[in-house]
Amino acid sequence: MTENKYKGTVLSFFELLNNKSVEIPIIQRDYAQGRIDKKEIRGNFLNALYDSLNEEKPIMLDFIYGSNVDNTFQPLDGQQRLTTLFLLHWYAFTKENKTDQNNILKNFSYETRITSRDFCNALVSNNINIVEEIAISKKIVDCPWFFLTWRNDPTIDAMLRTIDDIHQRFYKIDNLWDKLISTEKGIIRFYNVELKNIGLTDDLYIKMNARGKLLTPFENFKAGFQKTIIDAKWENNIEFKNTFACRIDTIWTDFFWHHFRKNNNIDDSFIKLISTISMIRNSVERNNRSEDRITVITKLQEDSNNVKPKNFTIADFNYLVECLNLYSEKYSVIKSLKLDIPFWRHTPGQDFLHEVVFSESGASYTQKALFFAQTEYFRNTQEYNLDKYNEWMRVVRNIVSRGDIEKSGKRPDIVRSPQTFDGVVNLISELSAGCADIYIHLASIENLKSTFAKEQIEEERLKARLIQENPNRKKLIWSVEDTDLLRGRINFMLHCIDYETSNNFDDKLFDKLQIVINKHFKEEQEVSNDLRRALLTIEVNGRYDFYGYWWSFWNVISSNKRCLIDRFREMEYLIYSDYRDYFKKLILELSSNNLKDIAENFNPPVDFPKWKTRLIKDSTLLDNESKSNYIAIPEDESCCYLLKSKRPRDSNGCLKIE
Q: Where do the GmrSD restriction endonucleases N-terminal domain residues begin and end (predicted)?
C-alpha cells in the first residue's frame, strides 16, 4: 500500500473492504452497468479485468472518490466499478468455496435501496453451487432466500445479469480468488481519494452527479424511514421477517405489485398511501407534533412526495404497519364487500384505498376521509358484516356529503380545506369506537368531544333512535337519504311530516312522501317548467311567491328580478331557507297529484295577478317564450317580464306579460 498526497491511496477492492465498510449512499443511482442496454460497456470492463487477471498484468482503475462516515466509506464516484468488483469477488469466493472470507464481503452494502442491501447480504451469506453450463442468476432466483419481488429492483436485476456475464468469462480462470486478493501482485487497483483531503465536499459531487438516475421520492423516504426506525429502536426484539424493512420489500411489495402497478412501478402508489396515513395521523394524534398539523396536512395534500420520516411518531409507525398488514392480507375480502351507497361526486371506481393510491388527479380530502372510515371498520371489527359496514359508511357519507349550499345552487364540499379535513378525521376517529354497529352506538352515546358537523351528527343520532324504535324505518330513511336532492339529510322530510313539532314519526306519511321524492327528485336533472308552474300555485301565509328566495334589482324598468329555479341544486337551498314551506306543500300535493294536474286544476283567488295566472295556465309562455328562468316584477305587480338573460342590459327581447 503506497501513499500519494494528491492522488490518494492505492488500494485493491479487498484491501478497501479490509480497512473499512463500503456503503453505496442513498444519493446514488441504481447499478447501471448491469442493465440490458449497457452490454457493451459492461463487456469492455469485464474483458479488461479478465485480460489483467488471466495474464497477471496489473491494471489501474483510476480514481474512486468518496467520504468516510463513521468508518464507512461512501463512494460518490466509482459506484459502478466497485459494484462490479464486489460481484467478481463474490463469484470467485463462491466458485472456490472461500467460506472463511464471507465476513469481508459483508462489508460491502447498498443504502440506495433496502432490497439491494438485503440482496447483497443474502448473496454472501448463502452458498451457491456453481457449474459451468447453468446460468447462476437462475440458481439464485430459485433459492428459498430469494424474494421474487427483488426482481423488480433494477439494481438486483442488473447484478444478476452481471453475475451471468462474469460466469461466462471467468469460470475457467484457476485460483481466481487468490489472484484478486494478492497484495504482492496487486493486479486490480485504484486510487481511493477522500474528498476532504482534496478540498472538495459531498455537495459539490451531488451537483456534478446530477446526470445520474435519481432515486424516487418513495425510495428516499423508505431509506430515511428505515434509519429513523433503527435509530428510535421502534422494532427492538422483532424477528427480521416481521420488520418493516423485510415486509416493505416482500409481502407489501407483492400486494402493491399485484393491485396497484402502473408502468411496472409501484413507488407512486406506495408514497400516496403513506402520505395519506400521515395526514390522518396528524389529525388523530394531535400531541407531540414538531410541526403545525394544518401545515403538514396542507403540504401532503398538495404533493404526497412531501411526506417525511419526521412526520411520524411511534404510534403513527405502528398504525402504518397495521394498515399495510391489513390491506395486504384482507384486500380481496374488502373489495368483495360492495358498498350499495351513492357517494355522488366522490363515488370510488373500486374502493377508497384504490382512490387514494391510484387516482390520476390525486384523491380529494373527502375521499381520504372516506378511506379512513373504510380502514377503521376493518381495523376495529373481527367479523365483517356487510350490512353493518354499509351502515357505518352511510353515516360517514352523510357527514362528509353535507354541503354549504348557496342560493345559486353552488355546493362546495364541506371537507375542502386542511381545517375541515382535520375536523372530520378527528370525528370519524371518535365515532369508530362504535363502527361495528354504528346505529346502536349513536343511539346510546350522549356526548361527543368533536364539534365538527354538529347538526348532522344530531340528525344521525335521531335516525339511529328512530331505526332502533322500528327497524322497518331503515329502508324508508335510506331511500330518502340516497336521493340527489337530499344527499344524506332528512331534516326537510321530518319537517314535511311535522315531526319537529310533534315528535311523532308518521310512518305512513313518510312512506308516501319518500315515494314523491324518489319519483320527482331522485336524480339531478333539468328542472321542468311543469315544476315551476306547480310551484306558482302554492300559497304560504297568503302569498304565492316561492321565487322570493332569490332577489336582485333591474334598473332598466325599476323592477325586482326573481328566479323561477334555474338549476336543480337551487331546490336544496330552497328547502333549507325561509321559503321551504312552499316546497313542503308541493311535496304534500304531489302525494296525490302530478305536476301538470296541480297547474291545470289551480283555481286562482280573486286578487291573483293576471300575469301569474297566464304563466300557470298557458304552458307556451315558459316553454316557448322564456329565454331564461328569470323574471322581473314591478312594485305594483301589474305585470312581469320574461327576461332574456340573468342580467339583461335593456328591455329589448324581454317579453312583457300582463
A: 15-224
Give the DSSP letter string of 9-29: EEE-HHHHHHHSEEEE-TTS-
pLDDT of residue 27: 59
Query: Which value, to the nearest 10 degrees, does the dihedral of the CA atoms of residues 570, 572, 578, 584 take?
Result: 120
Query: Does the pLDDT value for residue 200 go beyond 60?
Result: no
The C-alpha atoms of residue 350 and residue 347 are separated, in whole angstroms, by 9
Distance CA 229, CA 313 (A): 10
CB-CB neighbours of 591 under 10 Å: 13
Q: How far apart are CA 423 and CA 415, in angstroms?
A: 9
pLDDT tens, residue by residue, 29-50: 678 788 888 888 888 889 889 9
**Residue 29's pLDDT is what?**
65
Strand pairing report for 21-24 and 72-77? parallel
Q: Cell numbers 482503475 label which residue?
A: 61
Residue 77 is inside which H or E element, if any? strand 72-77
- What per-residue confidence (pLDDT) applies to 289? 64
Read off the C-alpha cell for 150. Answer: 427483488
Which amino acid appears at position 327 of this protein? Y
Nearest to 21, CA basis, from 85, 90, 75, 99: 75
pLDDT at 569 over 80: yes
* Placement of cell 411489495 in the chain: 253
Collapse the DSSP code of 421 into the 3-class scheme (helix H, G, I; strand E, B; otherwise coil) and give the result.
helix
Bridge partners, 209 (sequence order): none
User: Where is 193: in which H helix or E strand?
Assistant: strand 188-194
Q: Which long-range contacts (CB under 8 A, 24 or more apart) does 179-182 make?
A: 179/53, 179/56, 180/12, 180/13, 180/14, 180/53, 180/88, 180/89, 180/92, 181/12, 181/14, 181/89
Highest mean pLDDT among 92-101, 218-227, 563-572: 563-572
Residues 615 and 546: beta-carbon distance below 8 Å: no
**67-to-214, 235, 291, 597 alpha-carbon distances in Å:** 20, 29, 32, 88
- Say what the pTM is: 0.73
- Report yes or no: 319 and 281 within 8 Å, Cβ to Cβ: yes
Sheet containing strand 630-633, strands side by side: 552-554, 559-563, 630-633, 640-642, 655-657
Say if residues 102 and 124 touch (Cβ distance below 8 Å): yes
Asked whether the predicted pLDDT for residue 429 surpasses 80, the reply is yes
Dump pLDDT digits (tens) for 132-158: 888 899 999 999 999 888 888 888 999
Residue owning grid cell 304531489: 590
Per the rule left: phi > 0, alpha: psi between -120 and 50, beta: everything else, 78 is left
